[in-house]
Amino acid sequence: MKIRYDRETCIGMFQCVDEWDAFQKNMDAGKAELTGATEVEEDVFELEVPDGAELDAEFAARACPVDAIELYDDDGEQVI
Fold first, then answer.
1. Domain limits at 17?
2. pLDDT tens per residue across all 80 residues of the chain
3. Number of domains forming the structure of the chain
4. What are residue 2's phi and psi, to 5 degrees?
5. How far apart are the first and last CA of the chain?
């Protein structure tokens, strides 16, 4: 499972931070940060979801009010 985070779209509500500890508050930028993620495009980050963290990643994606977080299964199909 892979999570994709569009930092440009983020509006800094930090609801993802409450759902999964892979997201951290960056108060200076007013945006969340996805810890350990790789920047694959400008301001777009991806991270393989660790085993056992799938539910937390799903909650983080669902909690985002602006859909800045997408979740993909192992086949590359978007689930959120």
1. 2-72
2. 999 999 999 999 999 999 999 999 999 999 999 999 999 999 999 999 999 999 999 999 999 999 999 999 999 999 99
3. 1
4. -130, 140
5. 11
